[in-house]
UniProtKB/TrEMBL annotation:
First-listed, main subcellular location of the protein, grouped into a coarse class: membrane
Keywords annotated in UniProt: Cell membrane, Ion transport, Membrane, Transmembrane, Transmembrane helix, Transport
MF terms in GO: monoatomic cation transmembrane transporter activity
Cellular localization per UniProt: Cell membrane
Family to which this protein belongs: Belongs to the TrkH potassium transport family.
Membrane-spanning ranges: 23-43, 49-69, 81-103, 142-161, 191-209, 241-263, 275-296, 397-420, 453-479
Pfam families: TrkH
Identification of the protein by name: Trk system potassium uptake protein TrkH
Source species taxonomy: Bacteria, Pseudomonadati, Pseudomonadota, Alphaproteobacteria, Rhodobacterales
């Protein structure tokens, strides 16, 4: 206990003024959230929605202007960078609330929809939105696109430049770095890759979709691994080819975005060796094969098996699209939950625990077994890609896994106390914590309000990988020594 107190005595607290100035500096970046849907609303004459989006847009621009007159803290501490990122995400979630309420949603449902959008989850309170104006569909898809990458990862470094503050923000937002480039250059390279994949996706989907605007919103949601669809049956109404292209887009950004940066700079070999491509493809292929076998054993048709595999790949990429209702069969739900828990790769837009952490955990298991057989004087080390794994990374993996497990157990127990189906409740909690968006059917407008807020908290925790939100809301962060 005394040792813990001693370690706590040398920690920094977050300075509110530094965090405030950092938030102001990101005003123009935050303005990118309501700007496009607001512009579309004005063009199509949806003036109520335009006003609801215009007010937060004006506030963001005002914050950006004020930020230009504030001296940005060059000594931004890591904890302050984490708090800033958490605050930016929460502010982004608050901005579209009035817009969703203008579309007829209650306050609770508007909160749910906004958080699901910004966290790129895809769980929804909207049963059918085809009669919504185009700007409303653009709003939902754009929230996912910006939440999936631009704000949480690239926005900070793009506006601040390669200073100490930018590096602190970059380290807080980027989990996989290229030491050969500055934070700002890295962010720009990743953003270019993200935009390029989005443009390619839109071009590919336009001839496959009933309308060009559906291609736009589906591509934005797919690239962000978000999962919002303008249709109540998600992807089921679209052709098999359209479903395939959509899932391919989801998978493309469930890899680390640094894959595409390495691919352009150093070629395919470096892209494969220095990122999680090989592991992702191996686990994805094995999971799809097991899923196919499980579906075939149930006597389903080829079309039903294909839809089930699409659901599995969507869950593994944490996109949340579905080609058919999620099967109630326990084995199928278990496979999907495993896929959602694993999630995509570190440095991607996907959620989940991340496959990189899973692989590191297996390396730790392997090392433990080796040490049980090794002589006392033998030197054994935990290695990843030939490099020694630092203790900070091991601690982080254990902390995230613990937070995920505790959050899942607490949330699941709350659902069980409400008398809901145990397996379905567990599935939807995993979906929310992993920011996926698939549902067993429990998550809809009829869900009890307190359970909706449980899922809201789960989505926020999952998107910020637990530690950031816990640190930002912890009193000791602000009032410690």
């Amino acid at each position: 206990m005394s040792n813990s107190r001693g370690q706590a005595s040398v920690t920094w607290r977050a300075r509110p003024d530094a965090v405030w100035r950092s938030i102001l500096a990101h005003g123009f970046i935050l303005a990118a959230v309501p700007l496009p849907p607001c512009a579309v609303a004005l063009v199509e004459g949806a003036y109520e929605l335009a006003v609801a989006l215009g007010i937060p847009l004006a506030l963001c621009i005002l914050a950006g202007i004020l930020g230009r007159f504030q001296r940005y803290p060059d000594d931004l501490r890591a904890i302050e960078a984490v708090c800033t990122l958490a605050a930016l995400l929460l502010i982004a979630c608050a901005m579209p609330l009035a817009a969703f309420m203008s579309l007829g949603l209650s306050f609770t449902d508007a909160v749910f929809e906004a958080v699901s959008g910004v966290t790129s989850t895809g769980l929804s309170m909207v049963g059918g939105s085809l009669d919504w104006p185009l700007s409303a569909h653009v709003l939902r898809a754009w929230l996912q696109w910006t939440g999936g990458f631009a704000i949480a990862v690239a926005g900070a470094a793009l506006i601040l430049g390669p200073s100490k503050a930018a590096r602190a923000m970059g380290n807080a937002g980027m989990t996989e770095s290229d030491i050969m480039t500055s934070t700002r250059q890295q962010a720009r390279s990743m953003l270019i890759a993200y935009v390029a994949i989005t443009v390619v996706g839109i071009v590919l989907l336009i001839p496959l979709m009933p309308a060009p605007w559906e291609a736009l919103v589906i591509a934005l949601a797919a690239v962000s691994t978000g999962g919002f669809s303008p249709r109540p049956d998600s992807l089921a109404s679209y052709s098999g080819l359209a479903q395939g292209v959509t899932i391919a887009l989801c998978i493309s950004t469930s890899f680390s975005l640094m894959t595409y940066v390495y691919l352009r700079r150093r070629g395919p070999r470096a892209a494969v060796e220095r990122t999680n491509v090989r592991a992702m493809l191996s686990v994805m292929t094995a999971g799809a094969a097991v899923s196919t076998f499980a579906l075939w054993q149930r006597g389903l048709t080829a079309e039903e098996i294909g839809a089930g595999v699409v659901n599995f790949l969507s869950g593994f990429s944490t996109a949340g699209f579905s080609a058919a209702p999620v099967s109630a069969a326990p084995v199928i739900l278990a496979l999907l939950m495993a896929a959602m828990m694993i999630g995509g790769g570190t440095g991607s837009t996907a959620g989940g625990l991340k496959i990189d952490r899973l692989l590191l955990a297996f390396q730790m298991l392997r090392l433990t077994l080796i040490r049980m057989r090794a002589p006392d004087r033998a030197v054994t080390r935990l290695l990843d890609h030939g490099q020694k794994v630092e203790i900070d990374r091991i601690t982080s993996v254990a902390a995230v896994a613990l937070c995920y497990s505790i959050s899942l157990m607490v949330g699941w127990m709350i659902f069980l106390l409400a008398g809901l189906d145990p397996l379905g409740s567990l599935f939807d909690m995993v979906s929310a914590l992993s920011t996926v968006g698939l549902s067993s059917g429990l998550t809809d407008a009829d869900l009890a309000p307190h359970l909706k807020y449980v899922l809201v908290v789960a989505m926020l925790l999952g998107r910020l990988e637990f530690l950031a939100l816990i640190a930002a809301l912890s009193p000791i962060t602000w009032f410690g020594r």
